From TrEMBL:
Name of protein: histone acetyltransferase
Region (Disordered): 263-310, 413-505
Biased composition (Low complexity): 413-425
Domain of life: Eukaryota
Cellular localization per UniProt: Nucleus
Phylogenetic placement of the source organism: Eukaryota, Fungi, Dikarya, Basidiomycota, Agaricomycotina
GO biological process per UniProt: DNA damage response; regulation of DNA-templated transcription
Main subcellular location: nucleus
Length: 517
């Protein structure tokens, strides 16, 4: 079962009569060096982008409208047999039938990569990371202006994510017959453990379900435990924050890590003064301090205070960051899954860079996401219908009519006033694989790059595998899928209150007291 089929199967139990149309884009692996930018040496990691777009149709006569979207990234680190799944953005339009299918999609996505049997690459451990921050919109521009969309508050969003992670942990336990070791961590910056537990329990929609939840949660960060290996292997002599905390795009942890790494006296910002060693200290301690300071000053990419800040101090200082305390409650969630794999030599012989069936070029997802975020809006149903039609036709057109996707193709914008069919009418109707070069270009020395006054050479070598060629067969077998759901609808809240169930009101009369004559 591929990812598309797993996500479609999760929608079968939703109440109501409706038809779902799903588009799943998973890019081919590519080399990535920014997951641990301050680790020495950097571990080799391979990145894949995941984009999930779900549209809904009330009946065969009504148009489709986007209801949910997910943007994620998965990193494969073969040297430690670990993988990292980062949920970047999740959004809804509020224009579908309640309840929204977003939770079902997320549970299916997390379970698909957590289960070693369905995971598309061979690793023994998986880490899932998420930063929960409530906003009106993430992936659907102007959808916050739609009156039917009701975004959750910060505390309710954190409680919602905690239930999703707990459901995934139970599902993985069931699939693996309790052979998987699962560790759940959460941290609400600025809140103690008792305050966080009380807030999330109070904000839970179903208190009975929250009380019966069996997964055991740890309030804190996962970087001090040793039961589940961390993705970046490091020796005791070189381990610092850069080896244990991964860096993701648009993540407050990454921005704080950059500040710590480049906080030095040479950059114009003076770090706290180091204490002098005592007179009776050994010479070995003084030599170690001098070597640490020289290593910090000599590294062109910057180390700053990464060697001196402990994980506990890092998270304590995160509680004072503006991104974490700016008027709403935020939360960091992490889940570690360790499960021994069945030693299948065929899975380990496959190169981590080899593209698999159904994967698309990374430029295709960039084009779709750029069009989604900059060329459409979802403030009304009419605009959502138009954007849904254009984007779905664009995805199909890219699979059917193009052999490659490059940056020179124009992005469809609302100001151009042209439909998706007009945009792809000049493209060839069949793929032309002969236009793709069959051999790699000769190696060349790229021009040097400057960073902090030091020349830095790129550490990413060319990919020996060509980009996958998307076809109509790829579209029908791996990208697009539909499902018709016909289940009893949810009972209306108003129907539960009838005249018979109305509370009876007893009118009391006041008896006058006779006055004495």
């Amino acid at each position: 079962m591929n990812l598309r089929d797993a996500l479609l199967a999760s929608l079968a139990t939703l109440p109501g009569t409706r038809e779902f149309h799903l588009h799943v884009l998973v890019t081919s692996p590519r080399k990535h060096s920014a997951l641990f930018p301050f680790a020495h040496p950097r571990p080799r990691s391979y990145l894949q982008d995941i984009v999930v777009l779900l549209s809904e149709q009330r009946s065969s006569d009504t148009p489709r409208v986007f209801v949910s979207a997910i943007e994620a990234a998965v990193y494969n680190i073969p040297i430690s047999s670990c993988a990292v799944l980062y949920i970047s953005k999740v959004d809804t339009t509020g224009q579908g039938i309640a309840p929204a299918p977003t939770a079902n999609l997320l549970r299916a996505l997390l379970s698909f990569y957590s289960d070693p049997e369905s995971r598309p690459f061979a690793t023994d451990h998986l880490w899932i990371h998420l930063f929960a921050r409530a906003q009106g919109q993430y992936l659907f521009p102007n959808s916050a202006d739609y009156e039917g969309k009701h975004p959750l508050s910060g505390v309710k969003l954190c409680a919602w994510w905690k239930r999703v992670f707990g459901d995934v942990a139970e599902e993985v336990k069931r699939r693996t017959n309790s052979k998987a070791t699962i560790k759940l961590f959460y941290l609400l910056p600025g809140s103690s453990e008792s305050e966080a537990s009380h807030s999330l329990k109070f904000a839970s929609i179903s208190s009975a379900a929250a009380a019966s939840a069996s997964p055991q949660w740890t309030y804190g960060h996962p970087y001090s435990q040793s039961e589940t290996p961390l993705p970046c292997p490091a020796s005791e002599a070189s381990q610092n924050l850069g080896h244990i905390i991964p860096s993701f795009e648009d993540d407050p942890k990454s921005r704080f890590m950059d500040e710590i790494a480049y906080t030095t006296e040479a950059d114009g910002v003076k770090s706290p003064a180091r204490k002098r060693p005592r007179k009776d200290s050994s010479r070995d301690e003084e030599v170690e301090t001098v070597e640490k300071d020289s290593r910090r000053r000599g590294d062109g990419r910057g180390q700053g205070e990464l060697d001196d800040v402990t994980p506990d101090e890092f998270w304590e200082r995160m509680s004072f960051r503006q991104e974490c305390i700016a008027g709403t409650l935020t939360g960091f969630f992490a889940m570690g899954v360790s499960c021994p794999l069945r030693k299948d030599p065929s899975r380990y012989e496959i190169s981590p860079l080899a593209p698999q069936a159904g994967q698309v070029p990374s430029q295709m997802t960039k084009r779709i996401m750029s069009s989604l975020l900059t060329a459409h809006e979802f403030s009304t149903i009419g605009r959502c219908v138009r954007a849904t039609g254009i984007l779905e036709e664009t995805i199909k057109g890219l699979c059917e009519g193009l052999a490659t996707v490059d940056d020179t193709l124009p992005i469809i914008s609302s100001s151009q006033g042209q439909s998706s069919s007009q945009a792809i009418s000049d493209r060839p109707s069949t793929p032309q694989p002969e236009t793709r070069p069959q051999t790699l270009a000769p190696p060349q020395t790229p021009p040097p790059r400057m960073q902090n006054g030091t020349r830095v050479m790129p550490d990413v070598s060319p990919n020996p595998f060509p980009e996958p060629v998307t076809t109509l067969e790829t579209y029908n077998s791996h990208i697009y899928g539909s499902m018709h759901v016909d289940n009893p609808p949810l009972p209306h809240k108003s129907s539960a209150k009838t005249e018979d169930s109305a509370p009876q009101v007893t009118i009391l009369t006041v008896r006058k007291k006779n006055k004495r004559t």
